[in-house]
Specification:
Elements: E1 2-3, E2 6-7, H1 18-21, H2 23-39, E3 63-68, E4 74-79, H3 81-87, H4 96-99, H5 103-119, E5 121-131, E6 136-146, E7 155-166, E8 179-183
Antiparallel strand pairs: 1-2, 3-4, 3-7, 5-6, 5-8, 6-7
Amino acid sequence: MTVYSVPIPDVEGSAAGLATFSPDLAGRALPLVEHWTSRARDGKVPLRAEIDPSAIVSLLPYVYVCERDAEGTLRYRLAGEHVQGIFGQSLRGRTLDDFVKDPQARVRTGRTFAAVLDRHCMAIGFGRVYRCVDRVIVGTRLVLPLRSGAGDPDTLIGVTVPQAERGLDDSTPWAGDATRLYPLPFA
């Protein structure tokens, strides 16, 4: 199976491919994948209301939830303390256009988020995950789809695990350019 012309393994709805992509993410984000998987019932992507924050306490500073509105715009519903600290503001109700100043970064991130919702897949990317005024943050990003009701996925939950801070001249590719999409066997 291929997505964006990048070969991806068939992970049969599990986190099996996670450890080979980023050992750091596998160890730190696995609770989110396991909890998400435990909430996927009857072949359906879990409901946002079924995600229990107490099951992913160690990840909460790095977690964010975005919801797609009727016009197709993704708005942040919540963002953990670390994520908000990167941008120096609350992200609640904001879109990528509101706080991501680099237009290419907005496109890359928006493309990944849309693919997660439209293709019902898990996205994992490694590289530059945040660009700040004076530095970039390199890390790994994991994004999973959620539903707010009976229909198709319209919400996503993500976690970004920071691994290093580097100067603005860092040549590490953007995570959005080094993202793999893993198909999930859920409707």
